[in-house]
Design brief:
With 340 residues, the chain is of the alpha+beta class. The chain has one domain (7-335). The chain is built from ten helices and seven strands. A hairpin with a 2-residue loop joins strand 5 (180-184) and strand 6 (187-191). The chain is globular and about 50 Å long. The two termini are 34 Å apart.
Length: 340
Amino acid sequence: MTYRYTLEDLLVLLHGRAPAKVDALALNRRRVEYGLLSVGLKLHCLGDGDQFSTLVDGLGGSERILEINVYRHSQASLCLVLPPVGNASSAILLLECLEHFIGSTLLGNPEIQIQVCSPGRLSARRSALLAIGFYLGSDTLRRYTLGDLTTTVTHDPRYLRGKHLVIYDAKGDFERTFDWWEGSGKRRLIRPLLPFESGRSDLLTGSGSRSDIQNINLLATLLIHAEYEGYWSQLGMQFEEEMRALLERHLLAGLVDAPWVKTDDAESADDNKFFSAIQELVAYAFEEAVRIKERRRIFWGWRQPASPSLSILQEMQSLLQKYRNELVRQSHLLDQGGRA
């Protein structure tokens, strides 16, 4: 993450506009919840960015806060990097504090593109599951063009970016001082440092919501722990199996083989292959949304629905809720001295 200010600097600035929220954030900003990963955010502003001028000036000016960051959405007037926090709730609260300060919405705002940053570099296939799980589990259906995924470093060979939803490793500072859970069963070891020196898996949400941030945090935690044998690795691998089975039921399993992230593999540089995959996913999701709407209309018209099967959107949301509940349940057992 490239920024030249601390979270404490930011909280002091924000305190005058939202003291209660800032106090709550300051209290829990480094707390890791249930072994979930820490969360970083970047805000790409597609408007003129005037609403951020007082904030940027208060943190040290454009040269110090904005111009050191060469990476941003190609249509963005500015990209604001926020210091990472220990949990998704704090990340959302930070955005709410910023909204109070600038007098403008950030969540659900089409002119604000939110990039959610998770520590740890996922494999290409797990990056695909991260992106697909985010899309199907979101409370907003989106359509994409390749232009929506073009950044200022898309064609720079020094960066592994391309036009993708998931991107690897940002340049700049990497905050490691968050708890990492390892071990298994009753043996839970909490390390005070993340085991990654610089690796990150970021997801470009577009106009993001609170549930998007929470879902990405859950997905990234399960997949990163499976990738790096963290405490939740078994749960993460179970999730992978269930998600792949879900995609197979809907004849979408082949999407996982598409290049959802650009890697050192030359084939992953083909943006059109990725775009073809995401277009197939988008088309299927929109068809399912229409089917859900029609089923609800039939239900309220007192006619029996033609098919009782759940849509892929409902299945994905249920799957995320199942694993969120299970992660919380096992964490509580650990805290009580039981076996997770």
